[in-house]
Specification:
7-stranded mixed sheet, 319 residues, binds zinc ion, 8 helices
Length: 319
Protein backbone atom coordinates (compact mmCIF):
# COMPACT_ATOMS: atom_id res chain seq x y z
CA UNK A 1 0.00 0.00 0.00
CA UNK A 2 1.36 3.39 -0.93
CA UNK A 3 1.17 6.25 1.48
CA UNK A 4 1.55 8.78 -1.30
CA UNK A 5 -1.82 9.96 -2.62
CA UNK A 6 -1.69 11.97 -5.83
CA UNK A 7 -3.38 15.34 -6.03
CA UNK A 8 -6.50 13.98 -7.69
CA UNK A 9 -6.95 11.66 -4.74
CA UNK A 10 -6.68 14.53 -2.30
CA UNK A 11 -9.19 16.61 -4.26
CA UNK A 12 -11.52 13.65 -4.43
CA UNK A 13 -11.10 13.04 -0.73
CA UNK A 14 -11.88 16.68 -0.05
CA UNK A 15 -15.11 16.33 -2.01
CA UNK A 16 -16.03 13.05 -0.35
CA UNK A 17 -15.58 14.59 3.06
CA UNK A 18 -17.79 17.52 2.11
CA UNK A 19 -14.81 19.82 2.45
CA UNK A 20 -15.03 21.63 -0.85
CA UNK A 21 -18.59 22.77 -0.37
CA UNK A 22 -19.23 24.62 2.86
CA UNK A 23 -22.87 23.58 2.78
CA UNK A 24 -22.79 19.78 2.78
CA UNK A 25 -25.96 17.84 3.44
CA UNK A 26 -25.91 18.76 7.09
CA UNK A 27 -28.65 18.91 9.68
CA UNK A 28 -31.54 21.32 9.26
CA UNK A 29 -33.16 23.85 11.54
CA UNK A 30 -36.24 22.68 13.39
CA UNK A 31 -38.47 24.03 10.63
CA UNK A 32 -36.67 21.79 8.14
CA UNK A 33 -36.15 24.66 5.71
CA UNK A 34 -32.90 26.46 6.42
CA UNK A 35 -29.58 24.64 6.43
CA UNK A 36 -27.80 24.89 9.76
CA UNK A 37 -24.41 26.54 10.02
CA UNK A 38 -21.67 24.04 9.34
CA UNK A 39 -21.02 21.97 12.44
CA UNK A 40 -19.37 18.56 12.84
CA UNK A 41 -19.39 16.54 16.04
CA UNK A 42 -17.43 13.35 16.74
CA UNK A 43 -16.21 11.33 19.74
CA UNK A 44 -12.55 11.16 20.74
CA UNK A 45 -12.39 8.48 23.42
CA UNK A 46 -14.74 9.76 26.12
CA UNK A 47 -14.56 13.35 24.81
CA UNK A 48 -16.96 14.96 22.38
CA UNK A 49 -15.29 17.25 19.86
CA UNK A 50 -17.35 19.73 17.84
CA UNK A 51 -15.97 21.79 14.96
CA UNK A 52 -17.87 25.02 14.41
CA UNK A 53 -17.44 27.07 11.22
CA UNK A 54 -17.21 30.72 12.27
CA UNK A 55 -17.02 31.89 8.64
CA UNK A 56 -13.99 32.90 6.63
CA UNK A 57 -11.91 35.73 5.24
CA UNK A 58 -9.83 36.11 2.10
CA UNK A 59 -6.20 37.05 1.70
CA UNK A 60 -3.60 37.35 -1.04
CA UNK A 61 -1.60 34.15 -1.48
CA UNK A 62 1.72 35.98 -1.57
CA UNK A 63 1.49 35.93 2.25
CA UNK A 64 2.19 32.16 2.21
CA UNK A 65 5.60 32.37 0.55
CA UNK A 66 7.18 35.60 1.71
CA UNK A 67 10.71 34.23 1.16
CA UNK A 68 10.03 32.53 -2.19
CA UNK A 69 9.46 33.93 -5.68
CA UNK A 70 6.51 36.25 -6.24
CA UNK A 71 4.39 33.60 -7.95
CA UNK A 72 5.59 30.58 -5.95
CA UNK A 73 2.52 30.15 -3.73
CA UNK A 74 0.12 30.98 -6.57
CA UNK A 75 1.75 28.42 -8.86
CA UNK A 76 1.48 25.68 -6.24
CA UNK A 77 -2.16 26.49 -5.43
CA UNK A 78 -3.06 26.69 -9.14
CA UNK A 79 -1.73 23.14 -9.57
CA UNK A 80 -4.57 22.10 -7.22
CA UNK A 81 -7.13 24.05 -9.24
CA UNK A 82 -7.23 26.83 -6.64
CA UNK A 83 -6.96 30.57 -7.24
CA UNK A 84 -3.36 31.69 -7.83
CA UNK A 85 -4.08 35.06 -6.24
CA UNK A 86 -6.61 34.83 -3.40
CA UNK A 87 -7.08 32.18 -0.70
CA UNK A 88 -10.15 31.62 1.40
CA UNK A 89 -9.23 31.26 5.05
CA UNK A 90 -11.92 29.41 6.99
CA UNK A 91 -12.16 29.80 10.77
CA UNK A 92 -12.72 26.53 12.66
CA UNK A 93 -13.55 26.96 16.32
CA UNK A 94 -13.29 23.76 18.36
CA UNK A 95 -15.57 22.91 21.27
CA UNK A 96 -14.45 20.01 23.49
CA UNK A 97 -16.57 18.41 26.18
CA UNK A 98 -14.40 16.51 28.63
CA UNK A 99 -15.61 15.12 31.96
CA UNK A 100 -18.52 17.54 32.08
CA UNK A 101 -16.37 20.57 31.23
CA UNK A 102 -17.04 22.54 28.02
CA UNK A 103 -13.86 24.03 26.57
CA UNK A 104 -13.91 26.41 23.62
CA UNK A 105 -10.58 26.57 21.75
CA UNK A 106 -10.38 30.09 20.27
CA UNK A 107 -13.38 32.27 19.53
CA UNK A 108 -13.39 33.10 15.81
CA UNK A 109 -13.32 36.65 14.49
CA UNK A 110 -16.47 38.11 16.03
CA UNK A 111 -17.19 41.53 14.55
CA UNK A 112 -13.75 42.06 12.98
CA UNK A 113 -13.49 42.44 9.21
CA UNK A 114 -10.09 42.43 7.54
CA UNK A 115 -9.32 44.94 4.77
CA UNK A 116 -10.90 44.13 1.42
CA UNK A 117 -13.32 41.60 2.90
CA UNK A 118 -17.06 41.69 3.27
CA UNK A 119 -18.10 40.45 6.72
CA UNK A 120 -18.52 36.67 6.56
CA UNK A 121 -17.62 35.57 10.05
CA UNK A 122 -18.76 35.82 13.64
CA UNK A 123 -21.16 32.85 13.38
CA UNK A 124 -19.95 31.14 16.53
CA UNK A 125 -22.65 32.22 18.98
CA UNK A 126 -25.48 31.40 16.57
CA UNK A 127 -23.93 28.00 15.93
CA UNK A 128 -23.67 27.33 19.67
CA UNK A 129 -27.38 28.14 19.88
CA UNK A 130 -28.18 25.51 17.27
CA UNK A 131 -26.36 23.05 19.55
CA UNK A 132 -28.63 24.15 22.40
CA UNK A 133 -25.85 26.07 24.12
CA UNK A 134 -25.71 29.66 25.31
CA UNK A 135 -22.34 31.42 25.64
CA UNK A 136 -22.84 31.22 29.41
CA UNK A 137 -22.68 27.40 29.14
CA UNK A 138 -18.97 27.55 28.18
CA UNK A 139 -16.75 26.70 31.19
CA UNK A 140 -13.31 27.45 29.72
CA UNK A 141 -12.16 29.65 26.84
CA UNK A 142 -8.70 28.52 25.76
CA UNK A 143 -6.99 31.10 23.53
CA UNK A 144 -4.07 29.68 21.55
CA UNK A 145 -2.60 33.11 20.78
CA UNK A 146 -3.64 36.74 20.57
CA UNK A 147 -4.31 37.21 16.84
CA UNK A 148 -7.62 38.97 16.03
CA UNK A 149 -9.04 36.04 14.06
CA UNK A 150 -8.78 33.96 17.26
CA UNK A 151 -9.81 36.47 19.95
CA UNK A 152 -12.41 38.50 18.01
CA UNK A 153 -15.32 36.52 19.45
CA UNK A 154 -14.34 37.23 23.07
CA UNK A 155 -16.43 40.38 23.33
CA UNK A 156 -19.42 41.91 21.56
CA UNK A 157 -20.14 45.64 21.85
CA UNK A 158 -17.43 45.78 24.50
CA UNK A 159 -19.11 43.17 26.71
CA UNK A 160 -17.69 39.75 27.57
CA UNK A 161 -19.44 37.04 25.57
CA UNK A 162 -18.54 34.00 27.70
CA UNK A 163 -19.61 35.38 31.05
CA UNK A 164 -19.11 32.24 33.17
CA UNK A 165 -15.92 30.92 31.60
CA UNK A 166 -12.36 30.82 32.89
CA UNK A 167 -10.21 32.40 30.18
CA UNK A 168 -6.68 31.20 29.41
CA UNK A 169 -3.97 32.96 27.35
CA UNK A 170 -0.17 32.97 27.81
CA UNK A 171 0.99 36.14 29.55
CA UNK A 172 3.46 36.94 26.77
CA UNK A 173 0.56 37.00 24.29
CA UNK A 174 -1.53 39.33 26.41
CA UNK A 175 1.41 41.70 26.87
CA UNK A 176 2.31 41.71 23.17
CA UNK A 177 -1.20 42.13 21.72
CA UNK A 178 -2.30 44.78 24.19
CA UNK A 179 0.87 46.88 23.98
CA UNK A 180 0.54 50.55 23.12
CA UNK A 181 -0.10 50.73 19.36
CA UNK A 182 2.06 53.88 19.20
CA UNK A 183 5.12 51.91 20.23
CA UNK A 184 4.35 48.81 18.12
CA UNK A 185 5.84 48.14 14.68
CA UNK A 186 3.77 50.03 12.11
CA UNK A 187 2.72 46.84 10.30
CA UNK A 188 1.12 45.49 13.48
CA UNK A 189 -0.65 48.63 14.70
CA UNK A 190 -4.08 47.99 13.23
CA UNK A 191 -4.01 44.41 14.42
CA UNK A 192 -3.05 45.48 17.92
CA UNK A 193 -5.89 48.02 18.05
CA UNK A 194 -8.37 45.22 17.26
CA UNK A 195 -6.76 42.86 19.78
CA UNK A 196 -6.89 45.50 22.52
CA UNK A 197 -10.58 46.06 21.81
CA UNK A 198 -11.32 42.38 22.45
CA UNK A 199 -8.66 41.39 24.99
CA UNK A 200 -8.69 44.32 27.41
CA UNK A 201 -12.30 43.78 28.61
CA UNK A 202 -11.34 40.25 29.71
CA UNK A 203 -7.71 40.90 30.67
CA UNK A 204 -8.46 40.85 34.41
CA UNK A 205 -9.72 37.28 34.19
CA UNK A 206 -7.08 35.81 31.86
CA UNK A 207 -4.99 33.03 33.37
CA UNK A 208 -1.60 32.35 31.85
CA UNK A 209 -0.38 28.92 30.77
CA UNK A 210 2.69 27.46 29.09
CA UNK A 211 4.11 24.30 27.54
CA UNK A 212 2.65 21.20 29.19
CA UNK A 213 -0.13 22.93 31.12
CA UNK A 214 -3.21 20.69 31.37
CA UNK A 215 -6.01 23.20 30.90
CA UNK A 216 -8.81 20.65 31.49
CA UNK A 217 -8.81 16.84 31.76
CA UNK A 218 -7.00 15.55 28.64
CA UNK A 219 -6.46 18.99 27.11
CA UNK A 220 -2.79 19.99 27.18
CA UNK A 221 -0.97 23.02 25.74
CA UNK A 222 2.08 22.39 23.54
CA UNK A 223 4.43 25.32 22.92
CA UNK A 224 4.45 26.12 19.18
CA UNK A 225 6.27 29.46 19.00
CA UNK A 226 7.00 31.42 15.84
CA UNK A 227 3.57 32.26 14.43
CA UNK A 228 3.45 34.45 17.54
CA UNK A 229 5.84 34.33 20.49
CA UNK A 230 3.38 32.49 22.74
CA UNK A 231 1.44 30.51 20.12
CA UNK A 232 0.41 27.06 21.39
CA UNK A 233 -0.86 23.90 19.74
CA UNK A 234 -3.29 21.80 21.78
CA UNK A 235 -3.19 18.05 22.38
CA UNK A 236 -6.43 16.23 23.19
CA UNK A 237 -6.12 12.76 24.75
CA UNK A 238 -8.84 10.43 25.96
CA UNK A 239 -8.95 6.65 26.36
CA UNK A 240 -5.86 6.20 24.19
CA UNK A 241 -7.17 8.45 21.38
CA UNK A 242 -5.29 11.61 20.45
CA UNK A 243 -5.93 14.70 18.38
CA UNK A 244 -3.25 17.35 17.85
CA UNK A 245 -4.78 20.75 17.10
CA UNK A 246 -2.04 22.48 15.11
CA UNK A 247 -3.93 25.79 15.26
CA UNK A 248 -1.77 28.16 13.11
CA UNK A 249 1.41 26.08 13.05
CA UNK A 250 0.51 25.61 9.36
CA UNK A 251 -1.75 28.43 8.24
CA UNK A 252 -2.55 27.00 4.80
CA UNK A 253 -3.21 23.28 4.37
CA UNK A 254 -1.31 23.06 1.06
CA UNK A 255 1.50 25.63 1.14
CA UNK A 256 2.27 25.14 4.84
CA UNK A 257 2.64 21.38 4.45
CA UNK A 258 4.21 21.03 1.01
CA UNK A 259 6.62 23.89 1.66
CA UNK A 260 7.10 24.12 5.43
CA UNK A 261 10.25 26.17 4.71
CA UNK A 262 8.28 29.00 3.11
CA UNK A 263 7.88 31.90 5.49
CA UNK A 264 4.39 33.18 6.20
CA UNK A 265 3.93 36.94 6.28
CA UNK A 266 1.93 36.79 9.52
CA UNK A 267 4.53 34.71 11.38
CA UNK A 268 6.28 37.01 13.84
CA UNK A 269 9.46 34.94 14.33
CA UNK A 270 9.85 33.31 10.92
CA UNK A 271 12.83 30.96 11.56
CA UNK A 272 11.18 29.73 14.77
CA UNK A 273 7.87 29.22 12.95
CA UNK A 274 9.60 27.00 10.38
CA UNK A 275 11.33 25.00 13.13
CA UNK A 276 8.02 24.53 14.99
CA UNK A 277 6.15 23.63 11.79
CA UNK A 278 8.72 20.95 10.92
CA UNK A 279 8.72 19.55 14.48
CA UNK A 280 4.94 19.24 14.86
CA UNK A 281 4.30 18.03 11.30
CA UNK A 282 6.98 15.34 11.74
CA UNK A 283 5.40 14.26 15.02
CA UNK A 284 1.91 14.11 13.52
CA UNK A 285 3.11 12.18 10.46
CA UNK A 286 5.37 9.73 12.28
CA UNK A 287 2.85 8.97 15.05
CA UNK A 288 -0.14 9.12 12.65
CA UNK A 289 -1.99 11.38 15.05
CA UNK A 290 -5.31 12.85 14.02
CA UNK A 291 -4.77 16.59 13.50
CA UNK A 292 -6.87 19.72 13.18
CA UNK A 293 -6.03 23.06 11.58
CA UNK A 294 -7.78 26.31 12.46
CA UNK A 295 -7.74 27.57 8.86
CA UNK A 296 -7.98 24.21 7.07
CA UNK A 297 -11.09 23.57 4.92
CA UNK A 298 -14.10 22.70 7.06
CA UNK A 299 -14.07 20.68 9.25
CA UNK A 300 -10.29 20.71 9.09
CA UNK A 301 -9.60 17.33 10.70
CA UNK A 302 -7.36 14.74 9.09
CA UNK A 303 -3.94 13.15 8.99
CA UNK A 304 -0.50 14.28 7.89
CA UNK A 305 1.50 12.19 5.46
CA UNK A 306 5.22 12.51 4.99
CA UNK A 307 6.24 13.12 1.36
CA UNK A 308 10.03 13.04 1.49
CA UNK A 309 11.04 16.38 2.96
CA UNK A 310 7.50 17.73 2.89
CA UNK A 311 4.01 16.76 4.02
CA UNK A 312 0.45 16.41 2.79
CA UNK A 313 -2.85 16.85 4.57
CA UNK A 314 -5.45 14.15 4.03
CA UNK A 315 -8.86 15.02 5.48
CA UNK A 316 -10.73 12.36 7.40
CA UNK A 317 -14.48 12.22 6.81
CA UNK A 318 -16.35 12.81 10.06
CA UNK A 319 -19.74 11.15 10.10
ZN1 LIG B 1 -5.25 32.42 12.56
Amino acid sequence: MTLAPDRRFILKALGAAGLISLSPSGPLHADGMMPMRAIRQFPLGAMTVTIIDDGSFSMGVGMFAANAGKTAAGDLLASYGLSPTVAEMPLQVMLVETQGVRVLIDTGMGDITFHGNVPDNGRLVRSLQTLGLAPSDIDIVLLTHGHPDHVGGLTAQGEQVFANADHHLPEIELAFWTQSPDRAPVALREMIIECRRHLLPVAHRLRSYDDGTEIAPGITAIAAPGHTHGHHAIMLESDGRQLLHLVDTAVHYITGLERPDWTVGADIDKPKAIETRRRLLARAADDQILIAGYHFPFPGVGRIMRMGDAYRYVPVPLV
